């Protein structure tokens, strides 16, 4: 027997993006019933919980700096904001900064970006080698000329963040529907609803695609081409022979290898593999660590020559093949079809800003807090790219 339910707005994807949007809509007074679909209530393979939870304002485009600035302030007060009936989520935010190390090659780029970020009011600092060594005494500065440091940025527990958003959104009346969406019902330019795997039809006029690595698939359900594909990214947990007594910022080496502290003072590290093919691949691979990560890591921190590889995992970036930036806003022709997709590795940190901005567009038809129009779908139709030079 087929069933039918009615909502005003349906969000497909209950990760950090969909949940932040649901929270912002409900909290800011959206007048209507909000349902949010999540096909996996354990979130085992959601990008959100497989991310390393970093947030930085060191970007090279204005819209990305603004999104992270809003989100940083939001995360600083997150535990308080997400309190429900006296219980606060724990996100273990560590505001230890982001540190981009500079060599002869990337130093001019870091200088340019630092000046740009300061023009927008972000206090990014250029550090000398001696100042950098004060932050990380174990560093080998041999081939470095300096570093670019943004105090106050940092990293946190993405699972805690997701749980906080979900709990608060539910408390504010959002309904989580643990179903897989298998079809979008569309009549010409008008949306009519969605169908789920269990055969239920949900009618509505507005649908949000917040499906992370599945955003391209969800777009196709509506007959809309969205250039977002899943691409594997691997993270490695290592234990050095001696644990650092000082706190690490999130460090990005010129080789592309990044590292940060994990609980118990072990270290998380990784590096985006340029030639990684698109696909839903969650296989974790030790060889990549041995061949591509360990050598530059041990060069930078000689102590890491004797580290122990403990474990790790693989998750998916939702890569926007058009220009490696988020696609945010309403489809120009299919009105009522909204997108918060394609963040290409910086979606966790942008989720509060994106949720706020898109909720304003949905409620008010304009952006008030952050103007995310540069990231609209229109740029793809018009052949414009937003070129972000700081994609990790
Ligand atoms: C290894 C790694 C490290 C990262 N580190 C960082 C970082 O330090 N900082 C940062 O900002 N970002 C980071 N990211 C990127 C970040 O994780 C993502 O940009 C962000 O989590 C995207 O959130 P989302 O809610 O869009 O996607 P997801 O968390 O994947 O949520 C999408 C949800 O949609 C659900 N879904 C999909 N299709 C359907 C359907 N048809 N029906 C019902 N439900 C559906 C899925 O089950 C999923 O739970 C990292 C990513 C990875 C993989």
Explained architecture:
The protein is 29% helix and 26% strand. With 392 residues, it is an alpha/beta fold. It folds into two domains: 4-79 and 157-227 and 322-382, 3-Layer(bba) Sandwich (FAD/NAD(P)-binding domain); 98-153 and 229-320, 2-Layer Sandwich (D-Amino Acid Oxidase, Chain A, domain 2). Helix 3 crosses helix 10 (347-364). The protein is globular. The termini are far apart. The model has no long low-confidence stretch (mean pLDDT 96).
Task: Offer a few descriptive terms.
392 residues; alpha/beta; FAD/NAD(P)-binding domain; D-Amino Acid Oxidase, Chain A, domain 2; 2 domains; eight-stranded mixed beta sheet; six-stranded mixed beta sheet; 11 helices; 20 strands; 26% strand; globular; binds flavin-adenine dinucleotide
Strand order of the largest sheet: 6-7-5-15-16-17-14-18
Q: What is the residue-mean pLDDT, rounded to a whole number?
A: 96
Q: What proportion strand?
A: 25-35%
Helix-and-strand structural type: alpha/beta
What coarse outline follows from CA principal-axis ratios?
Answer: globular
Distance between the termini: 49 Å
